[in-house]
Write a structure and sequence with these properties.
The chain is of the alpha+beta class. The chain has two domains: 80 residues, no CATH class; 186 residues, Glutaredoxin, CATH 3.40.30.10. It has ten helices and 13 strands. The chain is globular and about 70 Å long. The termini are far apart.
Length: 314
């Protein structure tokens, strides 16, 4: 998998200043410079976007997409207006969430969820029903979140079947959407059931196994079976896949966190958490977010409280 390793600040003046005709605003020049700097094989395709205005005066924003076979990664560069310097990293607005770019791309409309609608913390989980790591995370979340955070956390599920390595994951995702459309309350029963039976399901028996679940949960067998057989909800699953892939990556503590390219990937109020994180670690991240919200609220109230002078306090 591609992992772009870009320096925090590339002071390109020593190279670019030697020839003032060179500019990072020229795509050919920028690509040659990046290929010289990064340890990429020639087979890696590089697509450089047009310079766009950025939020910082004096800098233009350029998006670079690296592609190798089915893997891809997007990076954002900032180039000085004169084209002589390159800045690699993420820009943050202190008045907004550091994960605002991720939040802007995350959609929960029409997604199954559990937890109260007014919960202060939202988790958006991109999962694959055939993924063993997703199974472990799902069991931990379903067992612990309702118990430890009955009012504080809401969880949304988004489909992200890795069809290249999991042959029945798409069928399971399509069936899940069919169930949700017909009987939303049954979706989480299905979610728990399919992970419990994951090791028993194969490409050959996935539809019959799902049919057994449907019969046991009073789903309209003919309508439901037609929905699965015709893959009526496949476009919904594909939309979820496309959204996950479109979520911007993030530079955190010197490490580049991509958008969704593996499962499970969980966003805690926009913060990306990749892989099956042990429950204790996931709980610590949720607690940290709750503590931050509490502190921020207290600071805002303290900041904006107007005191009326009283002679009794003088």
């Amino acid at each position: 998998m591609i992992r772009s390793i870009l320096a925090a600040v590339l002071c390109a003046g020593s190279l670019l200043a030697a020839d003032s005709a060179k500019t990072a605003l020229d795509k050919t020049t920028l690509e040659a410079y990046l290929r010289h700097m990064l340890p990429f094989a020639p087979q890696v395709k590089m697509e450089i976007g047009d310079p766009q205005p950025s939020a910082v005066q004096g800098l233009k924003k350029i998006t670079v997409r690296y592609t190798y076979r089915e893997f891809s990664e997007t990076s954002t560069l900032y180039v000085s207006n004169d084209g002589q310097h390159i800045l690699s990293g993420d820009l943050f607005n202190i008045a907004k969430s550091p994960f605002q770019a991720q939040l802007d791309k995350l959609s929960t409309a029409g997604a199954p969820s559990f937890g109260p609608a007014d919960a202060p913390v939202t988790l958006v989980v991109f999962g694959d029903f055939e993924c063993p790591l997703c199974k472990d995370e799902a069991k931990a979340m379903r067992a612990n979140i309702p118990k430890d955070y009955p009012k504080q956390v809401r969880v949304f599920f988004r489909d992200f079947p890795l069809v290249q390595i999991h042959p029945w994951a798409m069928t399971a995702a399509v069936a899940g959407r069919c169930i949700y459309q017909e009987k939303p309350a049954a979706f989480w029963d299905y979610y728990d059931w399919i992970y419990d039976h994951q090791s028993d399901i194969t490409t050959d028996n996935v539809k019959s196994k799902i049919g057994e679940f449907a019969g046991a949960h009073n789903l309209q067998s003919m309508e439901f079976g037609r929905c699965v057989d015709t893959q009526a909800t496949e476009k919904e699953v594909e939309a979820s896949l496309a959204e996950g892939k479109s979520i911007p990556g993030l530079q955190l503590a010197g490490q580049r966190m991509n958008g969704v390219d593996s499962t499970p990937t969980t966003y805690i109020d926009g913060l990306p958490v990749v892989g099956n994180v042990p429950w204790d670690s996931l709980k610590a991240l949720i607690d940290k977010e709750l503590d931050y919200q509490k502190t921020a609220k207290q600071q805002a109230e303290k900041c904006c409280t107007v005191g009326i002078p009283s002679p009794l306090k003088q």
